[in-house]
Amino acid sequence: MDSCGTKLPGRSRGWARGILQRRMQRRTRTVKVYTEKTTDGDSDEFSPHTQSASEDEIEEWQPESKAPKRQQKAQPSEKKPVVKRQAKPKEPKESKPKAPRKPVERKPRAPRAPKAPKPLKAPKPPKEPKPPKVPRATKGGKKQQALLEEGAGGVNQTNSICDAAESQQSARVKKERLSFIVPDGSCNNNMSRAGGGWSEGPSSSHQPYGGKKEEPEEDFAFDEPSLKRQKTSSAPQGRPTRLPTSGRAFGEDLNMNWDLIQLLSERTGVDQWVCLNISQLFKEENTIPFIVRYRKEMINHMDADAVRDVQLVLEEIYALAKKTQTISQTLKKEGVLTAELEQALRNCRTADELDHVYAPYKKGSKLSKACRARQLGLESAAQALLQSPYTLDLRAWVKPGSEGLSTLEEVSTGVVQILADIIAKDGETLTHIRSLCDKSMVMLQSSVSRTALKEQQKEGHQGKPKDIDKFHLYCDFTCNVQHIQHHQTLAINRGENLKILTVKVNIPDRVKSDFCRWCLNVRWRPKGYPREELMKILRDAVEDSYKRLLLPLLSRSYRAKLTGSAEKESIAMFVRNLRQRLLVCPVRGRVIMGVDPGFRHGCKLAVLSPTSQILFTDVVYLHGSGGNREADKLRHLMIRYSCNTVVIGNGTACRETEAFFADLISRRFFQPLDVSYCITSEAGASIYSVSPAAVKEMPDLDPNLRSAVSIGRRVQDPLAELVKIDPKHIGIGTYQHDVSQSSLKAALDGVVQECVSFVGVDINICSETLMRHVAGLNTGRAKSIAEWRETNGPFMNRDQLRLVKGLGPKSYQQCAGFIRINPLDHLNNHSDAAGGNSAQAAQEKPAAKGKGKTKASAAVPTLPNPLDQTCIHPESYAVARSFLSLVGGSVDQMGRPELRQCVEASVKCQGLEALAETLNTTPDTLQLIIDGLTQPPGFDIRQDFEKADFKRGIVSMSDLREGVVLTGRVENATLFGAFVDIGVGRNGLIHKKYITPDKLPADQRRRSLALGPGEKVEVRVLNVDHQRGRIGLDLIRVLR
C-alpha cells in the first residue's frame, strides 16, 4: 500500500523493496529508527535535510522561488506515478535533459490530486515564522548544526524513503529541494529542538524558511560594527553608535572632496567616533571644561589639552574649506575656473597644497611663465609631446614676428615651461619626491647674513655685534630636519627676522638625480619613440620643474612644518606652565604683607587681611641710611595687624630686601611673632597696576601701591589674582613673541577658563573679573550677574541664575556646574530677614519688562539647595537624590564620614557599573556625583598642588660649590630646560638632557619636559659662572 492508501501488487511491492535497499546502501547516513508516524509530505520534507549534511556542493542552477512550487506539485502527484517508474534502474544516469522532461509530463496530473493536503499546509506556515527568531539568540555554527543533523535527520530520511514509492520525478524534486534547503537545515534543527520535538518541521515550513534565508546573515552584518566599536573604545559609556554617521554628511556644507571626520582623525590620531562626538559637541556650542567634566563618556576620557588639540585642528580644517570656497568664487568671477581646477582645489587637504595650486592665479602677481606660454597656444604642443611625439613638429608653431613664437628656441622654451608646470602640480609627482626626501638627509643650515656683516663693519653701529653674539650658536649651524629641536627652530626664525641669520634647506643631489630618472622613465615617459630633440625638451622640463618650482616648494614646506611644530610645542609649554602657576595652592587664613622692592623710590608695602582686604599701605626705604628707623616701623605694623608672613616680589632690589628681612628674622626682631617670608614672581604687576581693572578696583591707591597689593594677593589666592593679568605678561615660557599670537592667546585664555571652572567660583563673593572666565560666561554676562547680585542680594541657589538678563539655557547649562553657592551665616541671615523682599524684587522687575520673564521668575525657587556647593551639575540632581536614597543617606550628611562609609560600602558591594545601571546613568556621572557628595565642605582641588616656600635664612651665590646638593622650586620651564630657584638670588638651569625619565615620577614621564612652575626638585650644582651669573644644575629627583 502506498502513502495514499492504494494497495500495490506483490511484484510491485518487491520491486519497490529492491529499489529501497539499493538506495539505502548508497545513503550511508540513514538510520532505521522511527520516532513517529508521519505523512508523506512530512517525511519527504525531512529527507533533504539529511542530504544537506553531506551534499553541500550540489549545483544551484534554478531560482529559489521555484523550489517550493515544485514541492507542492510533486506531493499530490505521488499518488499513481509508481507504475511508470518500474523502469527506474536508469536513475543513476539522471541527466539534465531528462530531468526536466518528466516533470513536464507529470505537471498536468498534479491538479488531479485531492486538495486535502493543502488545508493541512495552510495553517502551518503562520506557525513557522515565529520559531526562526529563537535560533538567532542561540550561538552555534552551521557546521555544528549539520553534524547534529546526521543522527536526527537520518531518521526522517528513512521515513521519506519508506513512504514514497520512489519515482524519477520525486527524486528530481528532492534534488531541486536540496540546493535550497541546505542553508536552512540548521535553523530548522535548532527550531525543532527549541520546540521540544520534531513535530515543528512540516513540509510547508520550507517556504517561509526559504523566504527568510538571509536573515541570519543580516543580523551578523548588523552586529559586526559593535565588535569594531569595542576595539576603538576603551570607555564602556562611549557613544560609538554615532560612528555610522559619515563625516561627509556631518560636514557636507564644506563642499570638499574629503571626509571631515576621517581627515580630523588622521591628523589628531583620535578614533573617528570620538572625533565625530567632539565635532558635534563643539557645533552645539559646548565649552571644553563642560565637555571634559560632564561628557567624559562621549570623548573617551580625554583631557582638556587633548580636546583643545582636536578643536584647533578642526578649526584649521574649517578655515581651509572656507578659504577654498573663497578662492573658487574669486576664480569663477575672473572666468578662469575650470572643472579640473575646481576639483584640484577641493582635493587640497592642507593650506600648503591650496597655496601651491592657487599660486599661478593670484591676482596682482604677474603671470607665471607657464601661463604666458599657454596664452600663446603652446599647451597643445606640450600635450602632443607626451601623447604622440612622433606627430609633433615644433617648426609648425614658429611665427616670425610674434613675441615668444618668433624662433624655434622660443617655442621650445615655452613648451618646457608648460611641461614643468604640469609636472610640478601633479599629485603623484609631489608624493614621489616627498618620499625621496624622507629617505634622505635633508639639512637645515643657518649662517650670518651679509647685512649683519656689513652693519658690523660700519662705524657707529656698536649694537649689532652684541646682537650677533646672542646668536653665536647659530652663526654656522647645520642640523638634520628630523633631529632639530623646537627651541633651535624658533631661535633661527628670530635671527632670520632680525636679518642677522640666513637660513637654507639643503636637499641632497641624489634626490634630484633619482627624481629626474623616475620622471623620464616612469611617470612622464612619452608614448611612442620621440626624437632626440624632443627628449631633450622633456629633460629640460623635468630639471626646470625641480629647480624652479619643486625645490622652493619643498623648502617652504619643511620650514613651515618645522615652524608649526615648534610653535605648537612652545604654546603647549606655555599652557602647562600657566596651568601649574594658576593652580598653586592658596595660603588662606593669614594676614600677609606684600612688598614691592625698590631702591630710589623705596619699597611699597600693603597689609592684607585673610580675605584679601587692604588694611594698610605705605612706602619704606630699607636700603638707605635710615634702615633702623624703617625696621621699627615694620615691627610696629606687623605686631599691630598680627602679620607673620611677608611676600617679596622678585624684581629690582629683591635680593637686598630679602637680606634685610632675613637679618631681622635671624635677630628675632619681630618677637613674639614667628615671621617668615617667601619670594614670588611680580611679572605683570606693573602692567596690572595701571590697567582699567585695577583703577576700578582700587581707585584711591597709587599705582605703585597697587602692585604691592597684587604681589600679596598672588600668594593668598593665585588664581583669583593672576586672571586679572594678560597670561603673556605672567613670565612663563619662552619665545612668546615668535609664535602665532592668535593661537597663543586662544590657548592661554582656554587654560585660564579651564582652571577657573575646575576650581569653581563662589558666585556671591568672587570678582567680576574672575567670573568672566567661568565656562559659559563672558564680560557681558558677568557684568549682568554682578548687577543682579547688587540689586537683589546674594544668590540663594543656582536656579536663580536663570533670572539674570542675557543668561540663556545654553549659558546656564555650561556655567551652572562650576558655580558654587556656599551656605554662609550672613547669607542665611539675609535669606531669613530679606529673602522674601529679594524674591519679590527679582519677580517684580521682570514683571515690568515682559510676561515671559514673570513666568520664568515665578517658577524659580528661592530656597537654598545643599547640592549647589558641590561639583554636581543641576542636570544630575535627580540622580544624586536617588543615589542618596539608595545608599541610605541624606543631603544633610554631605561631606561627613558616615556618608562616605555608606557610599564606599555600597560601591564595594554592588560595583559602580551596576549602580549606574540601576540609576539609569553612566559610571562617569555617578563617580562625579559620589565625589561631590563625599568631599568635605569648602573642598579645593588646589590643596593637592604645591604651596609657596616660606624661609627664614638666605644663601648667597658665593656659597655655592660644584657637587653641592640643594632643594629648589621650578620657576619657569622652557623648550631647552627648566629654571630653578635655589634661594641664592639667581635661578639655575637644568638642561633638558639632564631631565631623564628615570628621575621623574611615573605620572610625569609622558610629558615633553615633565617639569613645570611650582614643582619642588632636588638638584646638584654642576658649574657656577660668577662672571656671567649662570648656574648649571643636574636633576636628582622630583620631591612630592
Automatic annotation (TrEMBL):
GO process terms (BP): nucleobase-containing compound metabolic process; translation
Gene3D superfamilies named in the record: Nucleic acid-binding proteins, RuvA domain 2-like, Tex N-terminal region-like, Tex RuvX-like domain-like, YqgF/RNase H-like domain
Biased composition, class Pro residues, residue ranges: 114-123
UniProt xrefs under SMART domains: S1 (SM00316), YqgFc (SM00732)
Chain residue ranges for the region called Disordered: 1-248, 830-860
A Pfam family that the UniProt record links to this protein: S1
Domain named S1 motif: residues: 963-1036
Bias kind Polar residues: ranges: 155-171
Domain of life: Eukaryota
Compositionally biased tracts (Basic and acidic residues): 88-108
Sample GO molecular function, one term: structural constituent of ribosome
PANTHER family: 30S RIBOSOMAL PROTEIN S1 (PTHR10724), S1 RNA-BINDING DOMAIN-CONTAINING PROTEIN 1 (PTHR10724:SF10)
The protein, known as: S1 motif domain-containing protein
Record lineage: Eukaryota, Metazoa, Chordata, Craniata, Vertebrata
